[in-house]
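For the sake of clarity, the format in which proteins appear in this thesis is described at this point. Each number in the token line that follows is a code from a learned vocabulary of backbone shapes. One such record is shown here in full, so that the layout can be seen directly:
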Amino acid sequence: MDKDLIPQATSPLATWLCYLENLHSTTIDMGLERISNVALKLDVLKPAPTVFTVAGTNGKGTTCRTLETALMADGYRVGVYSSPHLVRYTERVRIQGKELPEALHTASFAEIEAARGDISLTYFEYGTLSALLLFKQQAVDVVILEVGLGGRLDATNIVDSDVAVVTSIALDHTDWLGPDRESIGREKAGVFRRDNPAVVGEPDMPQTIADVAQEKGAQLLRRGADWDYEVSATSWTFRDASGELKDLPLPLVPQPNAATALAALRASKLNVSENAIRYGIEHATLPGRFQVVSQAPRVILDVAHNPHAAAYLAGRLAALPERGRVLAVIGMLHDKDIAGTLACLSPQVDNWYCAPLEGPRGASAEQLIAHLGEGRTFATVADAWHAAMASATAEDTVLDEFAAIPLVPKPGDSDEPDMLPAATQALPAQPPEGAAEEVRAGAAVPPGLNSGAIPNEGSAGVDEVPVAHEQPKPQPVQEKPKPKPVEKPQPKPAADNQTEQPTKTEKPADKAPTGQAYVVQLGALKNADKVNEIVGKLRGAGFKVYTSPTTPVQGKITRILVGPDASKDKLKSSLGELNSLSGLNGVVMNYSPR
């Protein structure tokens, strides 16, 4: 390639991504030889003292997030590599729960470009090397790698993990991984390593996983045999060879994934306190996984894209209290199991609003209707969304179910991007488990949407990621410590951001303030005591806080809001402190009195 066409370290990220898309002849090129050669030159095969690698058909993202949240709460400096992104490429690499500035990504791309010589790399391989390089440069204690496609031949598998995880096994990507669960299980078990723990969260584990574990000499830890859990109405209990953890808080992520993350933490050699484990379980969340973004009508965003994930989603819908009708705005990729996915959801959906996804892999609205037999078709996602919202009553549930998350504003809403929740229409060509076609720079979005609307989970801004480690690194230990007294921990941020936690105060029964201004929506919790605790902390720190509804009800979703304030910039600047005090990730929204 003409050297004049190669981006520089200071080139915009969008320029680099366009370059990477066209660098290799195919988007998927299974095999590790090429990327391993470049990784050796960069010296990134050991990016951190401890590495978790997480594979599986579904559940990888929330398992990674639970690991991340617990480890951060215990003081570890954590790096996470995940895919695909919903909107921004920078979502793929997090350090201490924050995205990195684009300049760090482009600088790493330039270093990889100089090291690779004439070795061709795919988009995903380039991104994987970049993540490993950034983790090493940022001196993290723990790296969590989410596998892109399969496991054995995935780019992330160049790294020898200390703990390998397989969350679940279901039929997906059969063109690449094989026609049945046994074949797929063998591919995913390729992340196992000799003498290291191999945690399997799939209760109906294919025999091939056990076969690979034996061949590799890995320490297989199976759900239902080596570890398990029991759930009650208000808590759950985890059991493994080390003993029991009782009265654990119910997670916001799927229960099996929280339990799998806990099994992986306890299998590791890290000294993770029980306090931190409980905190991680209670606070881990991930956009697009049964994400409730508004009420009256209730709007839920979910990225379920295969029958296994759709069956779980259907169960969550069935358990909703007072849900009214369920109106589903849906779009899918034509190479997914459309019939199987829709069959799982159909018993829980009253009305379908079908829309096409752009790009060569997008299924048409007519293809979706052919499997449903009834429903309405629309030319665009925006049209489908507006029709569903116009039909919905306050008691209804509107489900946005896509391979990627779209969201378009209601007619008459402000076009201010900060009012939008963590969603957008980054729809064209979602890659299989993050390894194939990527969400391209400049992908079309509906009118009124801005890709910058996606809040950085756990971050007050990407520029605030610390470059140096400001705490002594916790060292891996061989023996488990005695459980510490159970107190709710707060995440341990860098030393310069630490604040003294105010004493808990009782929440006055204030009414929501009125007036046109801005607010920070911090989160939506079902734990009324936790809501009151957070509100007390924030008020003790001088913030104006109210909740919706005004009086939290146990088991019912309560939103926590800060403001209103006439200055959007003032609220944006407070996001970091709000996160430190509450553990929740806020987004600035327009406020209008009802």
About this structure: Residues 524 and 559 are 4 Å apart (CA to CA). The radius of gyration is 23 Å. The chain has a mean pLDDT of 78.
